[in-house]
């Protein structure tokens, strides 16, 4: 997969050289290009922002550098999908990460200040799919950190990026059995630590009992931290034991 990132702060993306994604890039599974938006300005000060029409606080990103940058990075026929992080976008979910992982190219446009002049997304939409996407109900200073989050969520889904041992199938929110269930607690050696034993069932070797226990713990944790998710469980997938938990 090819990922282009447009930003006025290319330094934000240094973490993409590290760990799982760094390795995926070195192995050629993920091809990330970070571009400085100011390369598409033409004035001495490389200006990217201006005051908002209608008044109000803060600054708005000017459309011209964005237009030229998108023309250069997404020429006709380039199969790009444009993703614009903004707190006013649709929610970024595991299902959207799975969709993005199937795309040949993603282009992320990081806004700063009060956002990007709205005509940029509107005009881009005449040439390619455009998603305005939010990570949740809070406000970041700019799109850069949101893009790091999305690139990691998408990158780990690409074939060959995770070892087989770290299967993606039982992630919280994974489509299928774990959809709308949070993962329960996990344990490793030693069997007793600071007088706290690992739950007996996990040492029993009884795979059916272990699966039952894990599902119960997932239900319990979901009820505690995200009760609204339980309403989304497929009623057909519930058994009598689930109802007792
Ligand atoms: Cl995607 N961008 C910004 N700037 N703030 C956010 C966000 C995105 N998601 C939540 N807050």
TrEMBL record:
Homodimer. Keywords: Cytoplasm, Methyltransferase, S-adenosyl-L-methionine, Transferase, tRNA processing. It is found in: Cytoplasm. Specifically methylates guanosine-37 in various tRNAs. NCBIfam families: PRK00026.1, trmD. Its EC number is 2.1.1.228. Belongs to the RNA methyltransferase TrmD family. Residues 1-230 form the tRNA methyltransferase TRMD/TRM10-type domain. This is tRNA (guanine-N(1)-)-methyltransferase. GO terms for biological process: methylation. GO terms for molecular function: tRNA (guanine(37)-N1)-methyltransferase activity. Pfam families: tRNA_m1G_MT. It comes from Actinomadura graeca. Signal peptide: none annotated. Coiled coil: none annotated. It catalyses: guanosine(37) in tRNA + S-adenosyl-L-methionine = N(1)-methylguanosine(37) in tRNA + S-adenosyl-L-homocysteine + H(+). S-adenosyl-L-methionine binds at residues 111, 135-140. It comes from the Bacteria.
């Amino acid at each position: 997969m090819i990922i282009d990132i447009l930003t006025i702060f290319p330094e934000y993306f240094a973490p993409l050289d590290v760990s799982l994604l760094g390795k995926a890039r070195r192995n050629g599974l993920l091809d990330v290009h970070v571009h400085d938006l100011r390369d598409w300005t033409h004035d001495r000060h490389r200006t990217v922002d201006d005051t908002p029409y209608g008044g109000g606080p803060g600054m708005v990103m000017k459309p011209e550098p964005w237009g030229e940058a998108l023309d250069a990075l997404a020429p006709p026929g380039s199969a790009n999908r444009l993703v614009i992080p903004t707190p006013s976008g649709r929610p970024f979910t595991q299902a959207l990460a799975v969709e993005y992982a199937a795309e040949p190219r993603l282009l992320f446009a990081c806004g700063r200040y009060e956002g990007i002049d709205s005509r940029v997304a509107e005009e881009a939409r005449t040439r390619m799919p455009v998603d305005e996407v939010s990570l949740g109900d809070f406000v970041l200073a700019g799109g850069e950190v949101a893009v790091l989050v999305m690139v990691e969520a998408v990158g780990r889904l690409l074939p060959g990026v995770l070892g087989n041992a770290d299967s993606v199938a039982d992630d919280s929110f994974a489509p299928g059995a774990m959809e709308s269930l949070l993962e329960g607690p996990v344990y490793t050696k030693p069997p007793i630590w600071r007088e706290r034993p690992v739950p007996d069932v996990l040492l029993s070797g009884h795979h059916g009992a272990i699966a039952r226990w894990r599902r119960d713990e997932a239900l319990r944790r979901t009820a505690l931290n995200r009760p609204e998710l339980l309403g989304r469980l497929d009623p057909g997938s519930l058994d009598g034991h689930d109802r007792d938990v």
